[in-house]
Design goal:
Elements: H1 3-15, H2 19-43, H3 50-55, H4 58-89, E1 90-91, H5 95-101, H6 110-121, H7 126-135, H8 151-175, H9 179-187, H10 192-221, H11 224-228, H12 234-244, H13 248-274, E2 291-292, H14 296-326, H15 336-368, H16 371-379, H17 382-385, H18 388-414, H19 427-436, H20 438-450, H21 455-462, H22 467-496, H23 499-504, H24 512-521, H25 525-549
Parallel strand pairs: 1-2
Helix pairs in contact: 2-13, 2-15, 2-16, 2-18, 4-8, 4-10, 4-12, 4-14, 5-14, 6-8, 6-14, 8-10, 8-14, 9-10, 10-13, 12-13, 13-18, 14-25, 15-19, 15-20, 15-22, 18-19, 20-22, 21-22, 22-25, 24-25
Length: 551
């Protein structure tokens, strides 16, 4: 073979697609496909009701969604930031245990908190019943009590459930600050409030902004709480337009508005982090030392940290546990064990598939050195920001078409009807969970692989190990802790996910989340309590493990 032929052969081999980069690119396209599908359906509706939406319900949905986003974001940011500052900066009674108890509201899905709050504060609940008994009131005309099923109650429930997102990131931001600046400010006469607003808050602002953005995106995603409190947002509008009006195109158009809001929030959070930079100018970094708070000041700080924990965890857990124990036979109710099995199997499969795909993609991007996978990979994180209702539209409609094509093809070849293989099973749910929570697994895999010294895989490669074996024999043993955490977090989020599950579940197929929603929607909290308790128990285990890894 001539030198020219060898050169052409080498050039041809260089142009061949690398299996790892091709696989990473395929996974990224798979994650982004449902979102692109929503855009396509919105631009090509069967019946275009966009002018009707603009003239009637869409402005109201949009304004209410903005109100809920900013209200919940503000309350959660104030609560989480304040609690983080107190536990990092001061020593007061119970601070060491409160530092971890504050995380527990993450274990209670917001829709369960909504059911518990209404049950506790409604006319027939223990609070109003006790007030009537104590003061001798006969009925509601004798006294005034705020309306429970209202927008303010929805804000309270969502903020109490999601402030730990802000708390976790703000606490990390405060802990990473050097104690030198605070000591200098204190020596110059700056009080506690002045040090918080002039030093602590500006330095932790990027972390607080990131946590608040997560809270606002989760508020947009919420359906169970909004529906229970009759708050009409864009997400509830998707359900109404699609399921009640039977217009998938109109639902997709509303979903695009939701996506625009989410993308705006993500971009805003990224910009805020890029434009704010703080650097440690001293080589000696001294952590912040807790200042003792004694007397009434210490007990006030304890109460300030204890209150969100009581509202976000103790209240809903106590109400649900009381109903579950009062209705102990509900644990053997028909369908509950089946719902538990469905939840464990679908959530488990989705968690395993998601983490494996994330590991493959992150490793493939690192190996390939090509620009396209590296550019597309970060975009796949938008799946986490996309509400479950949006993904439901982007997954169900294309899968339904594929399902019918497969059924027609099978019948033409075999003469027998195969039925709906994809949408008639839990396949669509697994796809939705994988897309929705892919960012969690990807972030964990990327961070873990980044901590592995490059010399280790390079040494394995020099000893003749193939790329796949390097992943299995070098990376996985070193990052198994992060992989286990990612599996757990994805699984727990799958257990709690409600909007996508409601839209994509097959007929007569329940998970614990949908069972809770179905029973509570019928005002049957007693039958909903056992399933709600199971969901909360899974969440408590996850939060306990999360607290352990964040020590």
């Amino acid at each position: 073979m001539t030198d020219l032929s060898v050169s052409h052969a080498k050039r041809y081999r260089l142009r061949l697609p690398d299996p790892w980069s091709s696989g990473a690119l395929a996974i990224a396209v798979f994650v982004l496909a449902p979102i692109l599908s929503v855009v396509w359906i919105a631009l090509n509706p069967t019946v275009n009701i966009w002018p009707h939406l603009l003239a009637t319900t869409l402005p109201r949905y949009f304004v209410t969604t903005l109100e809920m986003m900013f209200a919940v974001g503000a309350v959660a940011a104030a609560t989480g930031t304040g609690a983080a500052w107190l536990v990092v900066r001061y020593s007061f009674p119970g601070v060491r245990i409160l530092e971890w108890l504050i995380l527990l509201p993450l274990a209670i899905p917001a829709y369960i908190g909504a059911y518990a709050l209404v049950d506790f504060l409604e006319y027939a609940g223990p609070v109003q019943t006790s007030l009537r008994s104590l003061f001798g009131w006969q009925n509601s005309r004798d006294y005034w009590f705020p309306e429970i099923r209202s927008q303010w109650a929805a804000v309270t429930v969502l903020a109490a459930s999601m402030y730990p997102y802000v708390y976790l990131l703000a606490r990390a931001g405060f802990r990473e600050q050097s104690g030198c600046g605070h000591e200098v400010a204190q020596s110059l006469g700056a009080g506690g409030w002045s040090r918080f607003f002039r030093i602590g808050l500006p330095l932790a602002r990027p972390a607080i902004a990131a946590g608040t953005a997560i809270v606002m995106m989760e508020t947009v995603n919420d359906f169970g709480t909004m529906d229970y409190f009759a708050v009409q947002t864009l997400t509830t509008g998707i359900f109404t337009t699609w399921l009640e009006s039977n217009n998938a195109g109109g639902a997709a158009q509303i979903a695009c508005v939701v996506l625009s809001l989410v993308i705006f929030l993500v971009a805003l959070e990224k910009v805020s982090r890029k434009k704010v930079r703080f650097y440690a100018l001293s080589k000696r970094h001294r952590p912040i030392q807790r200042l003792p708070l004694r007397g009434i000041a210490g007990w006030m700080a304890c109460a300030a940290c204890l209150f969100p924990f009581l509202v976000g965890f103790v209240l809903p857990a106590a109400v649900i546990a009381d109903h579950a124990l009062s209705n102990i036979e509900g644990f053997w109710a028909p369908g509950l064990l089946k719902a538990l099995w469905n939840t464990l199997t679908v959530g488990g499969i989705a968690a395993v598939v998601t983490v494996i795909a994330a590991l493959f993609m992150v490793y493939g991007v690192r190996l390939s050195g090509r620009k396209l996978p590296a550019v597309i990979a970060p975009i796949t994180t938008i799946g986490y920001a996309a509400p479950g209702a949006v993904l439901g539209i982007g997954i169900l409609i294309p899968l339904a078409k594929v399902d019918h094509l497969l059924a027609d093809l099978t019948e033409a070849i075999t003469g027998a009807s195969a039925g709906l293989i994809l949408t008639g099973s839990a396949f669509a749910l697994v796809v939705a969970y994988c897309v929705r929570f892919f960012a969690i697994a990807q972030g964990a895999a990327d961070a873990a692989m980044g901590r592995v010294a490059p010399s280790l895989p390079m040494a394995a490669r020099s000893l003749g190990r193939a790329k796949g074996r390097v992943l299995v024999e070098v990376y996985l043993p070193l990052i198994r802790g992060s992989v286990g955490s990612a599996l757990l977090l994805v699984f727990v989020d799958c257990v709690k996910e409600l909007p996508a599950t409601l839209l994509l579940r097959p007929f007569n197929y329940n998970t614990l989340a949908t069972r809770v929603y179905d029973q509570a929607s019928l005002e049957n909290l007693g039958d909903a309590a056992p399933a709600a308790l199971m969901v909360s128990f899974v969440g408590v285990i996850a939060v306990a493990m999360l607290a352990r890894t964040n020590r």
